[in-house]
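Hallway conversation turned thread

IA: we were arguing at lunch whether anyone had actually written out Adenine phosphoribosyltransferase end to end. Turns out nobody had. So, for the record, here is the sequence (180 residues) and right after it the C-alpha cells. Reply here if something looks off.
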Amino acid sequence: MFLDPHYIRDRIRTVPDWPQPGVQFRDITPLLQDPKTFRVLVDMFVYRYMDQGLDLVAGVDARGFILGAVVAYELNLGFVPIRKKGKLPYMTVSEEYELEYGSATVEIHTDACRAGDRVLLIDDLIATGGTMIAAAKLLNRIGANVVEAAAIVDLPELGGSQLIKAQGIPLFTVCEFEGE
C-alpha cells in the first residue's frame, strides 16, 4: 500500500482554472502537509536512488526544492538549486524555455557541480517538459551528467515526458493524471 503510486496520486488536490481558465492545477501541498504521506513519497525516491552512485541532487525552483532537498539529505548528498532568473547571487548560466502558458528562464551557479558529477534532477510535475529540459541542459553545460529526471506527477497529454525522453534523459514519475 505505502509504495503504491495510487496512495500518492489520491492525495494530490486538483484546483480547476488556476492559474488561468482551463488549467487543472495539480497541488502537491496536501502530500507535504501529512507527515505519513510525505514520508512515503520521500521513501519512494530514496529507495529508487539509494544505490545509484549519485553525487548530487538538483531541484527545480520552487517545488522541486522541497522534495529535492529532503531526498538529498536522506541520500547523504549535496543539493543544487536551479532557480528562476535573477535569484542566484553568484556567477550563473541561464537557459530560456517555453511553458504551457508563457516562457521563463532558469539559472544555475557556474560552480554548482564538478565535471562528471552524477546528478538526479527533481521537480514536482512534468507538463510540457520545458523546465526539466532546460534544467538538464544547464547541468550538462557545467559538466554534470543527469542520471535521471524525476517528478511526482506526469501530465502525459501535454507531451512533456515524451520530449524529455526524446532528449535522451531517463525519466521517472510516481503517478500521472491524464484526460481529467
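OS: looked through it. The helical segments are 5-9, 29-33, 35-49, 63-74, 130-141, 160-166.
IA: good, adding that to the notes. Residues 35-49 form the longest helix (15 residues).
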